[in-house]
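Can't paste images in this forum, so I'm doing it all in text. The chain is below; anyone willing to post the predicted structure tokens underneath?
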Amino acid sequence: MIERAVAAPVPFAWVSGDELDGDNRSLRVWLEQQDLHFVLAVRGNRYVWPEMGVPATAEQLATTLAQQDWTRLSAGDGAKGPRLYDWMRIPLPSWQMAGERWLVVRRSRSDGKLAHHVCYAAPGTQLQEMVRVAGMRWTVEECFEAAKGEVGLDQYEVRSWHGWRRHIAHGGMSPL
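Text version of the structure:
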């Protein structure tokens, strides 16, 4: 889909995605090769290679940071106001000369849980911009949830064209 958008050419500045996308190393490599900036969530047990060259999991790198390394930023407005979290970033080497790669970590203020993102951005991109892009994913997910509710798709998961057609054309009933 992204490849078709680039070929179209559909204008966009960032690619954002959840752990399913972020854990796909070949997708991340392809995006960097195309010099497409991204913020993709990754699992904490995903290995990354920091500047020092010794691979570590995203979770392990996050635990090496001091309290003063964290910055409180909003990832956008939610139903109850700004979504405030503590954020920090660790540089990762990039094989592309045009951009910089980062591990960006989000820490919940309420329970201390961590979320991890691998980012590829233009040199000099500020952490606030990466946080804004990470927060856009939640907006998209909220829109999908609202749309599913509007058309009655919120009570099940459509896994195929046949399942969708059966639900829409026959009100959830299989044809005889």
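The mean pLDDT is 85. The first strand starts at residue 15 and ends at 17.
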